[in-house]
Design goal:
about 375 residues; alpha/beta; TIM Barrel; 6-stranded parallel beta sheet; 3-stranded parallel beta sheet; 14 helices; 9 strands; globular; dipeptidase; EC 3.4.13.19; hydrolase
Length: about 375
Amino acid sequence: MARTRHILSTTPLIDGHNDLPYLMREQLRNKIYGSNFTDGLLSHTDIAKMRKGLMGGQFWSVYVPCPGAVTVTEAAPVEPGIDDPNWAVRDTLEQMDVTKRFVAEYSDSFQLCTTPSCARSAFNGGKIASMIGIEGGHQTGNSLGAIRLMFDMGARYITLTHNCDNAFGTAWTTVDSGKEDKGLTSFGREFVRELNRLGMMIDLAHVSHNTMRNVLAITRAPVIFSHSGAYSVEPHLRHAPDDVLRSMKENGGVVMVPFVTRFLNMEHPENATVEDVVDHIMRIAELAGWEHVGIGSDFDGTPNVPKGLEDVSQYPNLITALLARGATDAQVRGVAGENILRAWKEIEDAAQGIQKEEKPNEEVWEGRSWWPENMDLPRMFERRCG
């Protein structure tokens, strides 16, 4: 454990996915000032547990369920109201707001970060770097303009789909229900281009396997999986297949392994342990390389977690288990946080180059409805015939 503590005292452990902000929304209606998040929470996460777990950074998930979804874990039917996105965009903005207010309220422990250099600086200053990720393309209202503004407000990754198809691509749940895996849509390709231009990390957790492949074929920057594992270890469609994992080496991205028991042991989830998480990490490292694997727990977004990883205080158990399997200190540092920081910096650098050549993408979803034109107002240009 001394070796583990030394590693985590000098390398920021950065988790790619935590749903505490969703609990704030569901259980507190975003009213956080009357509660104490320092310690004693029954959930997976509070500040004392994070400190005990030697955390250096957290991507807080801004999650809004798919339209029509009955529960968080059940697939939605064909998405109703896809052209009526006001509530999803509203709830996303409110959840971004509560995340930022939470970080500000506990500024002695947290620092809001929108760059990898900030994350390193926060860690070096004794704070837990706090980043925002949006968990589903449906939360943009199918709008490139909306995602630009969400980026400006601090979001730094977006999951292309959640548990429903959307204007951008096919979700894993569609394939799980026996329907065709159509992959990325034509508008989804425009979305990927704009995310690359912005420097927004593209998260392929929750998407179908063909959507993964389609994105990897066109992206101009590394991608991430904020909470997915290896399909060849456990054949759950939420995981990345071997060909995708091999592609991650060339892409430069990172697959961040979750602690969700039903993803780790489909037949007997109650038997899942920290060793199952290690199995996924080792397989991804074998196929993609140690530079392309990380941690994405999904704490507070799942009811059941593995033995040995009961809450955020238990991260050292995972690091110790990796070392026991033969991982080197350098490899473990990569898994803990160096890999995601490296990929994030490469995404930033790619965006800076793209922005020199491209203006913001003005493409519009083909299913978009527009208000009828008001013919009483002055016209900007002469009418064109034909």
